[in-house]
Amino acid sequence: MPVRVLLVDDEPLVRAGLRAVLEAQPDIEVVGEAADGATVIPLVRQVRPDVVAMDVRMPLLDGIETTRTLLRTMTDPPKILVVTTFENDEYVYEALRAGADGFLLKRARPAEIVHAVRLIAEGESLLFPASVRQLAAEYGDGGGNRAARARLERARLTGRESEVLRLMARGLSNAEIAARLVVGTETVKSHVSAVLGKLGARDRTQAVITAYESGFVAPG
């Protein structure tokens, strides 16, 4: 089945460009468009996308609040890919903290756009780990976030789960983690699922942000 994508951006040219790039792929289908976050919730319920590619800055309801609303009101929300003009942007980091699964620069090349959508849909790797580290270093409370520390303490990760979280924070995929730890990929998937469950994280991005903000992993 193709990856179903909903495009959300207040600039028609941006939406048209993304549509042209994505619809050229046999495994990706653009199922709808919206010009603002305020119309996203009913549209998501109608077209049931796998991925919402959404601008972080919009006039009525921005990508941060739209992400929060989607995750709060839907039992099975789509993956959320924030689309942004600026890489080192506090809005992007706040969207990731709110539950977005990753972000994409509007100036990205077509191959990078396609890769980002596929990677977000699969959910087995962290998109642009170096950029997420940079954002965490700039806006992530320097490891002093009390809520993140408490979340990590409650999780009581095992030694192997802690290793897996550190490797996740470096952006390694399940296959790469398996090779590093000399274990099977299915074993890594089990550890990743355990880490996400114990941290109450929706995905790898949320788990990694908790790791950075708690001081468990240094973002620098």
Automatic annotation (TrEMBL):
Domain Response regulatory: 4-121
CDD domains: LuxR_C_like, REC_NarL-like
PROSITE patterns the UniProt entry points to: HTH_LUXR_1 (PS00622), HTH_LUXR_2 (PS50043), RESPONSE_REGULATORY (PS50110)
InterPro entries, per database record: CheY-like_superfamily, NreC/VraR/RcsB-like_REC, Sig_transdc_resp-reg_C-effctor, Sig_transdc_resp-reg_receiver, Tscrpt_reg_LuxR_C, WalR-like
Keyword Phosphoprotein set for record: yes
SUPFAM superfamilies the record matches: C-terminal effector domain of the bipartite response regulators, CheY-like
An MF annotation (GO) of this entry: DNA binding
Domain of life: Bacteria
Keywords from the named record: DNA-binding, Phosphoprotein, Transcription, Transcription regulation
HTH luxR-type domain span: 150-215
UniProt key word DNA-binding: yes
GO terms classed as biological process: phosphorelay signal transduction system; regulation of DNA-templated transcription
4-aspartylphosphate modified-residue sites: 55
UniProt cross-references to PANTHER family, sorted A to Z: TRANSCRIPTIONAL REGULATORY PROTEIN NARL-RELATED, TWO-COMPONENT RESPONSE REGULATOR
Entry protein name: LuxR family transcriptional regulator
Organism: Streptomyces mutabilis
